[in-house]
């Protein structure tokens, strides 16, 4: 993904400090190997897209972004746990993640399961200890838990596993539903959490939800296209894994050309949703453009 | 464990309705196999000790126990997830749990990992959606997350795994610290959550914390004695597993006699802590007596 100068400057303002914050928190685990395994995956980097959405939505809607590290860390903790568990031998069995050995390869399977469990649980300790008022923290907890749990991300992962290698490929509707859960729900939670720390009208809330939904789909289509077209070095994980594993993807369903068109359409929808906001949203426009 | 008539009547008043509530919530998962796997382990029963502590502490401290199903369900969700993940092949590799096939045997490993992840995440959706005021829900979220996460239960599980089969057995102090995390922290969270929905003085809060700490230790010693002395049928899980697996237990450290004495001592401490409360605590006395 390319970043414009504007979004890059915004990210540079928030993300390095966030990473420090996350690592300092993880180092307080009461068992050293657990702290190491949590820190290992938190430090592995990645785009920090979900925290970036939290900060950028909050900034767009006029909130103070200097008080958001607990909230941004919480959603990145949840994302990081999900990668660790997804990579496990019983799941995607992936040895490589973000250009490094995946957690269970670097440590072992038991440690990776526990590091994931700890990151997921600690996410809620982070939100409950955030500097926002209690009513805001309760709303954030609910958004994060609903987006990540049995009605969100985990359900999507189960849909993916249930469909992988099946002789009947998913229909487009089923594929959209799977990804709306697997990746969309947590991206939606990020956007909602950013809006929740600001004061947002119902109309803006709706526009942001529509933005998040279109962006989530676009993000997944871009991910599927990358998996089919880029090298392992470029991706930081094993390329072509989707096809090898018999995964249902936008590329397997629509081909590269069809997927590219679908990506452009969702990026356009995300853009149109942002245009409905009562305020200009250059940072969010930049984040959409990163998918192009 | 034997239950007196009084605690049995109290449990009969709350636990069957709680089980219905938990299963109804799990059935709303957005993927049927995930809902099945979550329900399977929730329905497998067990003593519901943590919910019972929530209800009993709340009742003792004068709170309305008719509004506690979200809170009690949340802690039982966390306990149930921990059993599913602990039983996994990479962890304790246990085929039997509560007299039934463990989750990954009944379903498969990927499903069991995801069912555990979903139960853990949904616990926080339950707490954030509880009928208590926002300030109370935030405190409950924090107690549950801290008790279950990298400074509580998960750290204890990691300590256990790190020490299992090691040529150097744990000292008594290390064993106490491990169990204070592995089982004690969530029992302490149950007691604190029951107190948090009531209005409790600082002195009562301290007495309840001391009660929870002693009770948690007593509970673990009883569990270790049971593992060494009871049959698999009586336990509902594989007996003698601790010794076979080279686990550090109170029995391996102190022998059966020493462990029995240590149990009596902790039960006495729990009783003395309850006597310091500003109110009589017959239900909690009954729960302590269940360990005898």
TrEMBL record, chains A, B:
<keyword id="KW-0460">Magnesium</keyword>
<dbReference type="InterPro" id="IPR000092">
    <property type="entry name" value="Polyprenyl_synt"/>
</dbReference>
<keyword id="KW-0414">Isoprene biosynthesis</keyword>
<dbReference type="GO" id="GO:0016114">
    <property type="term" value="P:terpenoid biosynthetic process"/>
</dbReference>
<keyword id="KW-0808">Transferase</keyword>
<comment type="similarity">
    <text>Belongs to the FPP/GGPP synthase family.</text>
</comment>
<dbReference type="Pfam" id="PF00348">
    <property type="entry name" value="polyprenyl_synt"/>
</dbReference>
<dbReference type="InterPro" id="IPR053378">
    <property type="entry name" value="Prenyl_diphosphate_synthase"/>
</dbReference>
<dbReference type="InterPro" id="IPR008949">
    <property type="entry name" value="Isoprenoid_synthase_dom_sf"/>
</dbReference>
<protein>
    <recommendedName>
        <fullName>Farnesyl diphosphate synthase</fullName>
        <ecNumber>2.5.1.10</ecNumber>
    </recommendedName>
</protein>
<dbReference type="GO" id="GO:0005737">
    <property type="term" value="C:cytoplasm"/>
</dbReference>
<dbReference type="GO" id="GO:0004337">
    <property type="term" value="F:(2E,6E)-farnesyl diphosphate synthase activity"/>
</dbReference>
<dbReference type="InterPro" id="IPR033749">
    <property type="entry name" value="Polyprenyl_synt_CS"/>
</dbReference>
<keyword id="KW-0479">Metal-binding</keyword>
<dbReference type="GO" id="GO:0046872">
    <property type="term" value="F:metal ion binding"/>
</dbReference>
């Amino acid at each position: 993904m390319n970043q414009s100068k504007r979004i890059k400057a915004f990210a540079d303002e928030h993300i390095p400090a966030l990473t420090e914050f996350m690592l300092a928190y993880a180092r307080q685990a009461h068992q050293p190997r657990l702290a190491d395994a949590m820190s290992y995956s938190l430090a592995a980097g990645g785009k920090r897209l979900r925290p970036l959405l939290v900060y950028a939505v909050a900034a767009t809607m006029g909130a103070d972004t200097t008080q958001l590290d607990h909230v941004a860390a919480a959603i990145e903790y949840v994302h990081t746990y999900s990668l660790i568990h997804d990579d496990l031998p019983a799941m995607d069995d992936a040895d490589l993640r973000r250009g490094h050995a995946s957690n269970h390869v670097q440590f072992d399977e038991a440690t990776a399961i526990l590091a994931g469990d700890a990151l997921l649980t600690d996410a809620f300790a982070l939100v409950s200890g955030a500097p926002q008022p209690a009513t805001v923290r309760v709303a954030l907890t609910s958004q994060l838990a609903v987006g990540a749990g049995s009605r969100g991300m985990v359900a999507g992962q189960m849909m993916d596993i249930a469909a992988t290698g099946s002789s009947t490929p998913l229909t487009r509707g089923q594929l959209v539903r799977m990804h709306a859960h697997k990746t969309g729900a947590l991206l939606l939670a990020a956007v909602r959490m950013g809006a929740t720390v600001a004061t947002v009208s119902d109309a803006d809330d709706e526009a942001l939800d529509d933005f998040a939904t279109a962006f989530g789909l676009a993000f997944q289509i871009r991910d599927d296209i990358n998996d089919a077209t880029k090298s392992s070095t470029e991706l930081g994980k094993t390329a072509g894994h989707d096809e090898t594993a018999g995964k249902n993807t936008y590329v397997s369903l629509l081909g590269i050309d069809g997927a590219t068109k679908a990506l452009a359409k969702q990026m356009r929808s995300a853009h149109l949703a942002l245009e409905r906001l009562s305020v200009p949203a250059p940072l969010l426009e930049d984040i959409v453009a990163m998918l192009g």
